[in-house]
Specification:
Elements: E1 10-11, E2 32-33, E3 41-44, E4 47-51, E5 55-61, E6 64-68, E7 86-91, H1 97-100, E8 112-116, H2 120-123, H3 127-136, E9 157-160, E10 166-168, E11 171-177, E12 186-192, E13 195-201, H4 224-238, E14 243-246, H5 256-275, E15 289-290, E16 296-300, E17 303-306, E18 310-314, E19 319-323, H6 330-340, E20 344-349, H7 361-368, E21 371-374, H8 376-382, E22 402-403, E23 408-412, E24 415-421, E25 430-436, E26 439-443, H9 468-481, E27 485-487, E28 493-495, H10 498-518, H11 524-527
Parallel strand pairs: 1-2, 6-7, 7-8, 8-9, 13-14, 19-20, 20-21, 21-22, 26-27
Antiparallel strand pairs: 3-4, 4-5, 5-6, 10-11, 11-12, 12-13, 15-16, 16-17, 17-18, 18-19, 23-24, 24-25, 25-26, 27-28
Helix pairs in contact: 4-5, 5-10, 9-10
Bound molecules: zinc ion (2 copies).
Amino acid sequence: MNWPESMVYRVVSSVFCLLTACSGTTVAEADVVQPGKSCFEQLLPDLYRVMDTCNVYILRDGERAVVIDFGGGTWRNSLDSIGIRKIDYVLLTHHHRDQCEGLLSFDSPETTVRAPRGEEGFLTADGVPNYWKRRKARPSGYPASFSVLPRGLSSVKCDMSEGADLFWGRHRIRFLPTPGHTASAITVMITWNDRNVFFCGDAVHAGGRIWQPFHLEWDHWTPGGAQAAWYGLKRLGYCKIDLLCPSHGPVVARGANGCVELAAKRVMALIRAKGSVCEGERDDNFPVEPMSGLNARRVLPHLYQFGGNSFLLVSKTGDGFLVDPFKPNIPDLEALMAEAGVKRVTASIGSHFHYDHTDAYPLAKEKFGAEMWMHPRLAEVLGNSDKLDLPYLPAAPIMTDRVLPETGEFDWNEYHFNIWPFPGQTRWHCAFMATIDGQRVFFSGDTFQPPSRWNGTGGFCAYNDSRFDGFRECARLLLNVKPDLIANGHQVIYRFHASHYRRILDWCDMAEKAVSDLCPSKDYRRDYYVSQLME
Ligand SMILES: [Zn+2]
Ligand SMILES: [Zn+2]
């Protein structure tokens, strides 16, 4: 179906509501809403929109009003111009900062501010400080939200939920769960002038798209947020929608159900992209030899995998080289060193910045004297981990002892390594390869996994700055290099098969299209990514 832009109300001007003197306009039914000079754009009798940091919708009954989402709130100064003297309710579809920041300076005893049940942790005076404490903590995890107020609201009731209709005078206002942008996001529905009007927040954007689709990524490797969004969209789409009022972009006056259905279809494509990067490929795990009493396995005579994530390469001198140093694995390493007769570990190297692959750099240096070697991309992030906003950062900055080439070669004892950028799971990732006991072993961290481990990858998400062209680069590198063995993070060692990586190249096209299709600009480079600097 060739749908989008022709079937939405076009907004002629994107003038933000900074006007001090607004006058109401009455707009006849048409495909085009002309906001004119007023900041209040009338969509239906007694239903207005203001374009603020988000779309703010105002329902008027006499001198009273219900406001759906609040934005920056400057429009309040002009309410007189449309005859409104009292706001009974402000109803927030979800907690994102652009929806409600103006409420920080709004305190009216005659107005009740309500938000969806479940949003307390992102809106209340108690919840918000806790959120920021966790958000700024190190080591960091995946945030529960990407957009939260700097401080909580003094008065907000998080009690909007399905089945709990709000009666406002003779009007009935209903709430439908449409999670996605946030886990508890809600659509506000009212029958207004015989039209079923749905204020859907950011559940859907005109054209069957999603505003800032990275909000649908609730973690870095599952489609959980997208699955919840899909179900919410399906349920929304089962209702007959006469007017769809999203938080960003145009109001959809005709074909709203088609718009919602198209968004659901596109979200399903995202779910599919997150399901597997190498559908139909088979696992070919390389057998490893268990070591009695140790949390370690012998991969090759001079290569051991130990703990959850790490490898130890042993030189003929008896020195050890540590790959992906992770604190909980250090006791396993000490036991393994005793068993394998390794006297000292002289260097360590991480595949990517995530703390489960790097946080024991300093400990290995302190205990064994291991120099901290890093690819430039790791050095950049680990040295600035206190200034960056990325998932799974180590507790404190780690400064490198030796920066390895961006693309090139290095030696450790008798082993000769090649090293490359490997921007898959995250852009700050590298891979390196050496011939060990006659096998060309390719160390590749978390970018790829065998088909049955997770999704055949350690995941892709905007917050990790995963790039589809990066995954392409990684798959092409492997097809070019053709190693014998892939030694990954998370205890995985498997044989290389070209078909696996050719399949991944197909996936790159599919995943890039799935994400681009969701973006209002159709350009994932513009809409998909989230800022990586901590505010
Ligand atoms: Zn939002
Ligand atoms: Zn990782």
